[in-house]
Amino acid sequence: TAATERDVLDVLVIGAGFAGMYAVHAARQAGLEVLCLEAGAGVGGTWYFNRYPGARCDVESIDYSYSFDEDLQNDWVWSERYATQPEILAYINHVAERFDLLRSIRLGTRVATAEWDEAAAVWRVATEAADVHIARHVICATGSLSIPNKPAIPGVDDFEGEVLFTAQWPDTQPSFGGKRVGVVGTGSSGIQSIPLIAQEAAELTVFQRTPNYSVPAFNRKLTEEDQRRIREEYPERRRKSRLSGGGSPYVAYPKTAADCTPEERDAALENGWQTGGVLFGKTFPDQYTDIAANDYAREFAEAKIASIIDDPEVARHLIPRNQPLGAKRICTDSGYFETFNRDNVSLVDLREEPISSIATWGIKTGSASYELDVIVFATGFDALTGALARIDLRGVGGVRIQDVWADGPLTYLGVQVPGFPNLHLVNGPGSPGVLANMVMHAELQVDWILGLIRAADDRGADRVEPRTDVAQKWTAEVGEAAAGTVFVRTDSWYLGSNIEGKPRRFMLYTRGLGTYMSICEEIAASDYEGFVFTSR
Ligand code: NA7
């Protein structure tokens, strides 16, 4: 196809998930000419692709939703404390329609290359269909969990049954009735889908490489009384969330674990457990920084989990024990451990014997064979940097972002990269990202990015980029902050260690969303300290 060139856009957004959709809306509100390119056939990003049974957000629906428009906030009614994927997707589609966003979004359009044109001070962005778009600024809203990890197990292509990936689930729900199903992977996606698949399948075999801590969601329907209270408390809830560590209004117990009496500690942990899910990780303020505090919470969780599982031998395999609680993201489940009490469910511990190959009929470990009709891979993502690395993204002098990031991502504030002028990342490495409520995080970051673009325009500068030294300093700070936490004590996708050959670096800012945004605000107020504005 012949390349077609369009007029110069102010902003080109890559990705129409929560972040990209808000970027489109906010850029339009700021009077900028914006176009968004989205690979999926619909909007929603990760919520478009991850349609597996049981898919839910582990942040409460009333927090994991846009705050930028009060009418939207008050009109939309979430039916459950934790929304299912279909409800989240319905919400995103509603937002797209309500704010007429689709006229600025090209669906089914994957970006292949993005190249900085030094002479013209613009980005040239080409799609896989070789359409070229020219933009002054590019906002990458490419998602943290958007590139599925497909393990290269010998023989994987020989399997004659059905192969499914949770992260690329078919539009029509496959049926498991009467079938022998194997699920590989026990992260959040496995833990959410396993209980539902178990209800339907004739037999379910779970292949677990690393066990995970999972805390019941205590999900429930939201009543009319809840709805009334939510509306009344929303402004205060959002205010608290913006100042918080994780973008939700919850605060830790007012004392460190060490300062509590044993009774107080247990009561705080019980309360944290009943709050449910990933929020249990926030019971004590020092739970992520003091291993002793973490041990209290971990042992409490282990006892709770053990009490759910009937067979102590199965429990021994399902409970992690050797990793700090929350170093891998705590999973939020509805009936996960209970599922292993069913007669049609069995667990294979791959730490004892890894998968050796896949045959036409199923999965082989060293000494055992498992005949299967369906294999579900819930094997995670090339997280945080995977989507950017798949674009041939070239900055000043044709330098590729993969090369600049060969030893791990280098960013200033998680938002800009030296040598890549006018390129902005949302929820990128070096920001709190997935450690916070991504919707609120995206809104705050997009507003900040648009402030930076405005600052450049006000100066008559056609180019803005961070100095290398400030990016190095910020990246070192991100690393130092993480070094003081339990996050670096176990392998995880936060560290890139789930993907072969990826540099092992903790990629997120651990001091919390509120602290992070106050630093960003200070930098904006100091006339964008660390940024260089230039014009041709
Ligand atoms: P995760 O959390 O990365 O989980 C992936 C799981 O798949 C995990 O248990 C992996 O074990 C396992 N895995 C990956 N590759 C293999 C191979 N080759 N063989 C066996 N098992 C394997 O991804 P999710 O999609 O569940 O969740 C991601 C995030 O989405 C989640 O944290 C929420 O924030 C939402 P491993 O631990 O690597 O040993």
From TrEMBL:
The record ties this protein, via SUPFAM superfamilies, to: FAD/NAD(P)-binding domain
Read off the InterPro entries from this record.
FAD-binding_Monooxygenases, FAD/NAD-bd_sf, Flavin_mOase-like
The answer to whether UniProt assigns keyword Ion transport to this entry is no
**What is its cofactor?**
FAD
Query: From which domain of life does this come?
Result: Bacteria
UniProt keywords, alphabetically:
FAD, Flavoprotein, Monooxygenase, NADP, Oxidoreductase
Citing just one GO molecular function, the answer is:
N,N-dimethylaniline monooxygenase activity
Q: Which Gene3D superfamilies match?
A: FAD/NAD(P)-binding domain
* Region Disordered: start-end pairs: 229-249
Regarding protein family, the annotation reads: Belongs to the FAD-binding monooxygenase family.
This one is known as NAD(P)/FAD-dependent oxidoreductase
